[in-house]
Amino acid sequence: MADIIHKLLIKNMVCPRCIMTVESVLNSLNIPFTRVSLGEVEVPAKPTEAERERIERGLQKVGFELIETRVNKIIEDIKQALIEYLYLGMDAQNTKLSTFITKKNPYDYSYLSDLFSSIEGRTIEQFFILQRIEKVKELLVYDQLSLTEISYQTGFSSVHHLSSQFKKVTGLTPSHFRKIGAAKRKSLDNI
To answer: pTM value?
Structure first.
């Protein structure tokens, strides 16, 4: 499964010095992060409740506030629904993605789609394609299924469709990716 970036929203960040201050707070708390920008921190894993409390206290000491919003919850729920849809595989394919999402999130799809795009900077469909490609990579690494089986399992209409999306995202063809993986496994076996 692809890594999901979790975002924490922070109130009162207004300048580059604020970014350095927030980075310093996170470093002092040993909280890993991938990026800090005005009003936002990207962390590689969803903080535990204890970590959130530590972050909140650390930020408050320097005049900032962690914002937990309904919007964040909706975005996380959409991501979880997408991952669930992907892992249901062909069992979910008779249900449209938009229908599946609105069953999990009781809002109009156009609202969810606009909200997701405004917060994440990409559409739900783009995010879903990235998740599908990560699943394809995982299946290629396992080297148990043919490309036809992988395309079917991940909901691509054909091997050609899978290959074009895979190349668009990774810059490699699935076959080349599989060969690279096989070569790496072989070199590890020889050690």
So the answer is: 0.64
